[in-house]
Amino acid sequence: MQPSVKWFEIPVSDLARAAGFYGKLFDTPVMHLDLGDLKMGLLAGGQGALVQHHAYKPSHEGVLLFFDGGNDLAELLDRVEPAGGKVIRTKTQISPEQGFMGLFEDSEGNRLGLRSQQ
Asked: Which CATH number do you get for residue 109?
């Protein structure tokens, strides 16, 4: 069996702020769900969510999730800081076969990445 991601959850301290950040970054609305103590912001594509709950702590440590950077991840990295995040690593070539990557910190302090072929 090949590994594949079916669902991911990004911890947030402030769901409204995080939804604003990701909405601006990916130019898409984030749908809010109120599940009592657990608050979620569903990301477009339906494969993941922002999650606000006492058991979820934003961090630079742990698993590093890379989003699809589209045709050129530099376009998304250019949106990070105006949306309230911080670019950690600018567009960097991994190899000719693997394309490019970049790292950013979201509005909540999570470290995440982008990948693209160009």
From this structure: 3.10.180.10
Residue 23, domain member (yes or no): yes
Integer Cα distance of 51 and 57 in angstroms: 9
Q: Is residue 33 part of a domain?
A: yes
How far is Cα of residue 27 from the mean position of the Cα atoms in its chain?
Answer: 13
Instruction: Classify residue 85: in a domain, yes or no.
Output: yes
- The dihedral over CA atoms of 65, 36, 29, 111, expressed in degrees to the nearest 10, equals -20
> How many domains does the chain divide into?
1
Report yes or no: 109 and 62 within 8 Å, Cβ to Cβ: no
- Give the tens place of pLDDT for each residue, 48-70: 999 999 999 999 998 999 999 99
Whole-model pTM? 0.92
Cα 2 to the center of its chain, rounded Å: 23
Residues 6+ apart with CB under 8 A from 32: 15, 19, 39, 40, 41, 42
